[in-house]
Amino acid sequence: MIVVDNIQKIFGDKSVLHNISLTFEKGKVNLVIGRSGSGKTVLMKCLIGLLTPTNGAVYYDNKDFYNLPFAEQKLLRNEMGVVFQGSALFDSLTIEENVMFPLNMLTKQTQQEKLERVNYCLKRVDLVNVNKQYPAELSGGMKKRAAIARAIAINPKYLFCDEPNSGLDPKTSLIIDELITGITHEYNMTTVVNTHDLNSVITIGEIISFLKDGVLGWYGTKDEVLISKNENLNDFIYAQPITQMIRGFITS
Q1: In degrees, to the nearest 5, what angle opens at C-alpha 159 toward C-alphas 137 and 26?
Q2: For 103-112, how does the pLDDT look when each residue is reduced to its tens digit (9 = 90+)?
């Protein structure tokens, strides 16, 4: 479980996150939704330590992350898997080398043990016979799956995905969503997903946080999001054709 307590982030004279408090639950897919510029990525960077909050605290299973000694912070970071928006695979490394990268950095496993883990993770994301290929040789969806394989290579307790469906067609997006959900439940991880993909909200979002202009505008479950009377949330949710159709079924 991750608890965000009154987080604020200021850049110069601009406040990007305004006193956000929420909880990301273990073993569930926790979505953070909102339009571009709402503060989703800044919040995620504060969660994983790429940005330091101006005020507030982040607790990982009751550990105050930003008040831990550096050595303990490093150990906690080793329990985080991250899937970046653009996949962030190393172009000069093969897929096998990309997935093995965190194992080389963070473990003392033998080469054989690392290779076995790489092959297991690639199989888990349904990527076979791609070990010696380079990222440029893969489709967008395959790159995202390779990025997920790399993120879970160290068997993390916490998984963070920033816009995992960005640039993907609807069918491939569904595959990525199902993969993230399956891995979350299989490993009982605390998973946080930034997205503005309404299909993801409807299909995999178990706990949903809605940000608007850096403010937590709504917090609830997938079932509650479609019947919410929050005007800002509804303006975001029902701007999409698929949710307009669903709303018609709900209100008919």
Answers
A1: 150
A2: 998 888 999 9
Domains and CATH numbers, the chain: 1-79+158-164+191-252 (3.40.50.300)
CA dihedral over 211, 248, 205, 166, signed as positive or negative:
negative
Q: pLDDT by residue (tens digit) across 30-78?
A: 999 988 888 999 999 999 999 999 999 999 999 999 999 999 998 999 8
Predicted confidence (pLDDT) per residue in 215-229, tens digit: 999 999 888 887 888
Q: Could you tell me the two tokens for 40? A: 């989703």
Beta bridge partner(s), residue 32: 194, 209
Q: What was the pLDDT predicted at 198?
A: 81
Helices (H) and strands (E) in the chain, counts: 10, 10
Q: Is 86 helix (H, G, I), strand (E, B) or coil?
A: coil
